[in-house]
């Protein structure tokens, strides 16, 4: 039995698809998420085998969600969309399957067969990942989308990963690994990434360095990573 996670901003669509999947007897529904932030949490916690993912969602699209996942979190992906089938032909060679809303039982049976027989090349999510332009952060009970260009640095702690914009520090579900790979931030310390354009000063010290950002925040640089950072800065 395959463990399935459904991500769709429409409650009716989530419930209807969950019912159809359960009818097949081939899926265990491990979660139903209404947005990308909840989906990231669920994917990490549940490690689903297959992700039924809506493409068009408010704030963060299905494709953007895939760019926010760590490489080791790679469930099979079936895209779910209301788009005309002809508009999706360019993608059909790169995904296990697309389902058009409303999803029918016969069409879902074909998806199940594809999931069982899909070759390895269709299971690589890297082809759908793109550089991130905005990072979802939690702000009280809302999701704030922070432009990558506004980030000065990112840091990790036991409490999680935080982004500093100079005027605020915000929690994000994204890992430093993802931010380094897809948000253009540069590793300067085991627990810190920095945006090069936001560096104002470099204070060389025994055992490393300390950066000052344009807003005056201090960011540590480890001895091991200092040579690479100096090379990037041309100093």
Series of H and E elements: EHEHEHEHEHEEEEEHEEEEEH
The rounded Rg comes to: 21 Å
Runs in which pLDDT lies below 50 for 5 or more consecutive residues are none
Q: Can you tell me the CATH superfamily of the largest domain?
A: Response regulator
Could you tell me the strand content as a percent range? 25-35%
- What structural class should be given to the helix and strand makeup? alpha/beta
Within the CATH hierarchy, at the fold level, what is the topology of the largest domain?
Rossmann fold
Number of strands: 15
Shape: elongated
The end-to-end span amounts to: 57 Å
Task: List the domain count as a whole number.
Answer: 2
Number of helical elements: 7
Q: Residue-averaged pLDDT, rounded?
A: 91
Q: Name the CATH class of the largest domain.
A: Alpha Beta
Q: Record the strand order, biggest sheet.
A: 7-6-10-9-8-12-11
- The CATH architecture of the largest domain would be 3-Layer(aba) Sandwich
Q: Helicity range of the residues?
A: 25-40%
